[in-house]
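To assess whether ligand presence alters the predicted conformation, the chain was also submitted together with S-adenosyl-L-homocysteine. Input:
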Amino acid sequence: MLFAAKFAEKSGEGKMQILMEQNTNQQQYIKQLRLWNDKYAAETGARRRAFVLTFGCQQNEADSEKLKGTALAMGYELTEQPAQADLIVVNTCAIREHAELKALSIIGQYKHIKQKHPDLVIAVCGCMPAQESRKNELKNKYPYVDLVFGTTSAHRFPELLHEKLERGKRLFCPEATEGIVVEGIPVKRESSYRAWVSVMYGCNNFCSYCIVPYVRGRERSRRAEDVIAEVRELVESGYRDITLLGQNVNSYGKDLGNGYDFADLLRDVSTIEGDYLLHFMSSHPKDATEKLIDVMATCPHIAPHFHLPMQSGSDRVLKAMNRRYDTEKYYSIVEYMRSKIPGIAITSDIIVGFPGETEEDFEGTLEMLRRVRFDMLYSFIFSPRKGTPADTMPDPVPDAVKSERFSRLLALQNEISLEKNLPLEGKTLRVLCDGVSKTNAELCQGRTDQGKIVFFPCDPARMGDYVCVHIDRADSYALYGTIAEA
Ligand code: SAH
Ligand code: SF4
Ligand code: F3S
């Protein structure tokens, strides 16, 4: 059966039908590929291998965990070595040009692997080929790429791979026109204590610079009971740190039309008993409600951290970005959060050099940084994206001016981050031990409940545990300490 249940059928102009699909019709392809791979393993004594490379945001990380889970279910084993793979899947990002060029350059290198290993299947998926122009580019300039599909057909991965292997022809899957939520796809999580849980897919906001609504389709929410069941299972199997994901989680439920919103979902998820912390991202300021903040203030399982992308501190630029809030509205949310949750960490995204950004506009952004005093910023230089309104806006600002503004923004934020981190020296904080430092193998790395990065000497066996760390030193980027317990 193709569609197990019709989820929320909407009619009327411009509205899309949203269908709830179980992964059932992919099962037959998974099974056939499993038999094919099992036969190969029995004959050769080795399993075919799959390599999955991921670019982009947490949503893409979560999608890759499904691609890996599906590859395992199809009888592949996973490898970290593309040169040893029989199946390479590149899950791409299109948010800025740099992300696309990086993926294309790596895909270019796989040509040599394919020359040595002609049976290798190379698949490119994710946000980049969801754009017709990039799909055509892959078709015409990358003849060794076998299989191309965007985000709206990712759940059809087994079927597409099966078709490619059976017919031996290159396959370029068109994007789905209907909205779809698919449950039951196998998942191979990267971590045994930190997990992503998507609560919704797509975006309806059409910020004028952003490609996401074009490559991920319209908003569609998962059923609350499916989200709650997934989180419960994670908590029961020892997951400590769970992030609810959506491009704008504050729109959760709007398409379900039953009045149940993200604040309701967060409250209900947080009633699950256990030793864990919930995070969520991202939140669009136009939809951040007092109700949501009140839920955060009353539920101990919700991390005292809010990621609230501001993008710009100029009302003129915010309007041109189609963000539908102004700096006063933004600041009022910040004030409400701080009144209800003292000590809450607030982080944000900023775009520097939006078309026509004047020095005065940019000063407005610096002013908002001083006023809000973010704990951390993710900042980006504007990258024009084909097909978005901002791509054709006049942009007289030279690149050198944009780079110089970017450096000023970073310098100011570094000062603020340092001022916010220094008072933590001498304190003892709960930290989730999360990995080994990339620059010093002697140090473990973790995050406080507020999301601050901490480095400390620790037995790697404690990975995934909450530990108490005495903070000895702070800089603008991180905290450094020693374990304060036996
Ligand atoms: N849905 C999330 C953001 C996803 S993209 C949200 O609304 O918060 C992550 C960040 O990338 C955005 O917040 C924005 O700051 C940045 N970004 C998006 N499009 C961009 C572009 N064309 N150029 C530069 N930065 C961009
Ligand atoms: Fe892009 Fe705006 Fe949607 Fe975020 S809310 S994904 S920035 S269009
Ligand atoms: Fe990139 Fe797609 Fe995420 S464009 S940022 S991977 S939604």
